[in-house]
Design a protein that fits this description.
Elements lengths: L1 H13 L3 H16 L7 H11 L20 H10 L21 E3 L4 E3 L6 H8 L19 E4 L2 E4 L11
Antiparallel strand pairs: 1-2, 3-4
Protein backbone atom coordinates (compact mmCIF):
# COMPACT_ATOMS: atom_id res chain seq x y z
CA UNK A 1 0.00 0.00 0.00
CA UNK A 2 2.96 2.31 0.64
CA UNK A 3 3.97 2.16 -3.04
CA UNK A 4 0.39 2.63 -4.22
CA UNK A 5 -0.11 5.83 -2.23
CA UNK A 6 3.42 7.04 -3.03
CA UNK A 7 2.63 6.67 -6.74
CA UNK A 8 -0.70 8.48 -6.34
CA UNK A 9 1.22 11.30 -4.68
CA UNK A 10 3.56 11.51 -7.69
CA UNK A 11 0.62 11.57 -10.10
CA UNK A 12 -1.18 14.27 -8.10
CA UNK A 13 1.95 16.45 -7.98
CA UNK A 14 2.52 16.02 -11.73
CA UNK A 15 -1.08 17.06 -12.39
CA UNK A 16 -3.52 15.63 -14.89
CA UNK A 17 -2.23 15.88 -18.44
CA UNK A 18 -5.03 16.66 -20.91
CA UNK A 19 -2.99 15.11 -23.72
CA UNK A 20 -2.99 11.74 -21.94
CA UNK A 21 -6.75 11.91 -21.38
CA UNK A 22 -7.31 12.82 -25.04
CA UNK A 23 -5.03 9.94 -26.11
CA UNK A 24 -6.95 7.55 -23.87
CA UNK A 25 -10.18 8.69 -25.52
CA UNK A 26 -8.64 8.13 -28.94
CA UNK A 27 -7.27 4.67 -28.01
CA UNK A 28 -10.63 3.54 -26.64
CA UNK A 29 -12.35 4.75 -29.81
CA UNK A 30 -9.92 2.77 -31.99
CA UNK A 31 -10.37 -0.32 -29.79
CA UNK A 32 -14.16 0.06 -29.94
CA UNK A 33 -14.26 0.62 -33.71
CA UNK A 34 -12.08 -2.39 -34.47
CA UNK A 35 -13.11 -4.87 -31.77
CA UNK A 36 -13.65 -8.46 -32.77
CA UNK A 37 -17.14 -9.76 -33.29
CA UNK A 38 -18.43 -11.64 -30.24
CA UNK A 39 -18.37 -15.41 -30.65
CA UNK A 40 -21.92 -15.74 -29.38
CA UNK A 41 -24.89 -13.50 -30.14
CA UNK A 42 -26.46 -14.71 -26.88
CA UNK A 43 -23.44 -13.48 -24.84
CA UNK A 44 -23.54 -10.14 -26.64
CA UNK A 45 -27.26 -9.62 -25.95
CA UNK A 46 -26.83 -10.79 -22.37
CA UNK A 47 -24.02 -8.27 -21.89
CA UNK A 48 -26.17 -5.48 -23.34
CA UNK A 49 -29.09 -6.41 -21.10
CA UNK A 50 -26.78 -6.27 -18.09
CA UNK A 51 -25.59 -2.79 -19.11
CA UNK A 52 -29.08 -1.39 -19.73
CA UNK A 53 -29.90 -0.44 -16.11
CA UNK A 54 -26.60 1.43 -15.73
CA UNK A 55 -26.64 3.65 -18.82
CA UNK A 56 -28.96 5.94 -20.72
CA UNK A 57 -30.46 4.25 -23.82
CA UNK A 58 -28.10 6.12 -26.16
CA UNK A 59 -25.07 4.90 -24.14
CA UNK A 60 -25.90 1.19 -23.74
CA UNK A 61 -23.59 0.10 -26.58
CA UNK A 62 -20.64 2.31 -25.63
CA UNK A 63 -21.10 2.91 -21.89
CA UNK A 64 -18.11 1.94 -19.80
CA UNK A 65 -15.92 1.79 -22.91
CA UNK A 66 -15.76 5.16 -24.66
CA UNK A 67 -14.79 8.46 -23.05
CA UNK A 68 -17.41 10.82 -24.45
CA UNK A 69 -16.35 14.00 -22.69
CA UNK A 70 -12.90 13.72 -21.08
CA UNK A 71 -12.51 16.16 -18.22
CA UNK A 72 -9.28 17.22 -16.53
CA UNK A 73 -11.34 18.70 -13.69
CA UNK A 74 -13.28 15.50 -13.03
CA UNK A 75 -10.15 13.36 -13.28
CA UNK A 76 -8.39 15.66 -10.81
CA UNK A 77 -11.37 15.48 -8.45
CA UNK A 78 -11.45 11.66 -8.53
CA UNK A 79 -7.68 11.56 -8.00
CA UNK A 80 -8.04 13.86 -4.99
CA UNK A 81 -10.48 11.38 -3.39
CA UNK A 82 -8.03 8.46 -3.58
CA UNK A 83 -6.49 9.04 -0.18
CA UNK A 84 -5.45 6.85 2.72
CA UNK A 85 -8.16 8.27 4.97
CA UNK A 86 -10.86 7.56 2.38
CA UNK A 87 -10.42 3.83 1.77
CA UNK A 88 -11.50 0.36 2.76
CA UNK A 89 -9.15 -2.60 2.98
CA UNK A 90 -10.27 -6.16 2.33
CA UNK A 91 -7.86 -8.82 3.54
CA UNK A 92 -8.56 -12.46 2.80
CA UNK A 93 -6.79 -14.94 5.04
CA UNK A 94 -7.08 -18.69 4.48
CA UNK A 95 -6.53 -19.16 8.22
CA UNK A 96 -9.48 -16.94 9.23
CA UNK A 97 -12.02 -18.75 11.42
CA UNK A 98 -15.48 -17.60 10.34
CA UNK A 99 -16.89 -18.44 13.79
CA UNK A 100 -14.88 -15.56 15.27
CA UNK A 101 -16.26 -12.94 12.81
CA UNK A 102 -17.93 -9.87 14.28
CA UNK A 103 -20.12 -9.06 11.25
CA UNK A 104 -22.38 -11.04 8.91
CA UNK A 105 -22.83 -10.67 5.14
CA UNK A 106 -26.50 -11.52 4.58
CA UNK A 107 -26.55 -12.09 0.80
CA UNK A 108 -23.64 -14.54 0.68
CA UNK A 109 -24.16 -15.75 4.26
CA UNK A 110 -20.69 -15.53 5.75
CA UNK A 111 -19.12 -13.91 8.80
CA UNK A 112 -16.14 -11.55 8.70
CA UNK A 113 -14.24 -9.14 10.92
CA UNK A 114 -15.07 -5.47 10.52
CA UNK A 115 -12.38 -3.39 12.23
CA UNK A 116 -11.17 0.19 11.93
CA UNK A 117 -7.89 0.82 10.14
CA UNK A 118 -5.13 1.75 12.58
CA UNK A 119 -4.66 5.54 12.58
CA UNK A 120 -0.85 5.10 12.50
CA UNK A 121 -1.15 3.15 9.26
CA UNK A 122 -3.38 5.84 7.75
CA UNK A 123 -0.89 8.58 8.74
CA UNK A 124 2.05 6.64 7.31
CA UNK A 125 0.18 6.10 4.03
CA UNK A 126 -0.66 9.81 3.85
CA UNK A 127 3.08 10.55 4.05
CA UNK A 128 4.09 7.84 1.56
CA UNK A 129 6.55 8.99 -1.06
CA UNK A 130 9.30 7.51 -3.18
CA UNK A 131 11.73 9.66 -5.18
CA UNK A 132 12.31 6.76 -7.60
CA UNK A 133 8.72 6.87 -8.85
CA UNK A 134 7.66 8.97 -11.83
CA UNK A 135 4.34 9.54 -13.55
CA UNK A 136 3.89 7.27 -16.55
CA UNK A 137 4.34 8.65 -20.05
CA UNK A 138 2.14 7.52 -22.92
CA UNK A 139 4.46 6.23 -25.64
CA UNK A 140 2.24 6.16 -28.77
CA UNK A 141 -1.38 6.54 -29.63
CA UNK A 142 -2.52 5.42 -33.08
CA UNK A 143 -5.14 7.53 -34.78
CA UNK A 144 -6.50 4.62 -36.81
CA UNK A 145 -6.61 0.88 -36.36
CA UNK A 146 -3.46 -0.86 -37.34
CA UNK A 147 -1.01 -3.37 -36.11
CA UNK A 148 2.68 -3.30 -35.28
CA UNK A 149 4.61 -6.25 -36.71
CA UNK A 150 8.37 -6.45 -36.06
CA UNK A 151 9.05 -2.74 -36.39
CA UNK A 152 6.66 -2.21 -39.31
CA UNK A 153 3.33 -0.45 -38.91
CA UNK A 154 0.47 -1.89 -40.91
CA UNK A 155 -2.57 0.33 -41.22
CA UNK A 156 -6.04 -0.54 -42.41
CA UNK A 157 -8.20 1.95 -44.28
CA UNK A 158 -11.00 3.63 -42.31
CA UNK A 159 -13.54 2.53 -44.91
CA UNK A 160 -12.68 -1.14 -44.47
CA UNK A 161 -15.10 -1.96 -41.66
CA UNK A 162 -14.81 -5.66 -42.40
CA UNK A 163 -11.00 -5.57 -42.61
CA UNK A 164 -9.24 -8.24 -40.58
CA UNK A 165 -5.57 -8.39 -39.68
CA UNK A 166 -3.51 -10.96 -41.65
Amino acid sequence: MQHFFAYLDVVRKAGVDKTIIDNMKQMRQVQFDYQEKQASAFNFVSSLAGSAPHYAPEDVLTGGFLLDTPSVELTTEVLSKLTADNMNIALVLPTFDEKTGNAHEKYYDFKYDNVAIDSKLIESLKQASDARLAAAKLAICPSQAGSHYGGLWRQWPESANEARPP
